[in-house]
Amino acid sequence: MPKDKYEPPNERRQHRIMQRNEVAEGKPSKWSELEIFGCVQNLSRNLWKVEWLTVLYLNNNHLSHLPSQIGNLVNLEHLDASHNFINVIPPEIGDLVNLRELKLASNRIRELPCELGKCFQLQTLGNIAYTL
Q1: Total-model pTM
Q2: Can you tell me the distance from the alpha carbon of 48 to that of 36, in angstroms, rounded to the nearest whole number?
Q3: What whole-number distance in Å separates Cα of residue 23 and Cα of residue 37?
Q4: Is 74 in contact with 95 (CB distance < 8 Å)?
Q5: End-to-end CA distance of the chain
């Protein structure tokens, strides 16, 4: 049964490194949530290839932009990029058709791309008033 409202993950996030035998046995190795923190200024190009991500935390870093490749994360449901130095949101954000929650508070954003209107599942545009 699908959830109607997003429930934040448990405060104690679980981290797991798989053993070789677990991989050999075919245990699932994909994770659906990723948190990147530590005053990060640049994101790896490989991040935008992780199509199965549903939750991405980029908050509290030193990011100046989100690259257009963010549109590759087609399964993304929740994106938190608040508390950065982001100036522009790329129009490819509209390709995130499963996006339900977008947090962009405390950035340097002046306007949102009209393509965001293609995100019909979007329920929460968190604290955007601080940035506009």
Answers
A1: 0.76
A2: 13
A3: 27
A4: yes
A5: 37
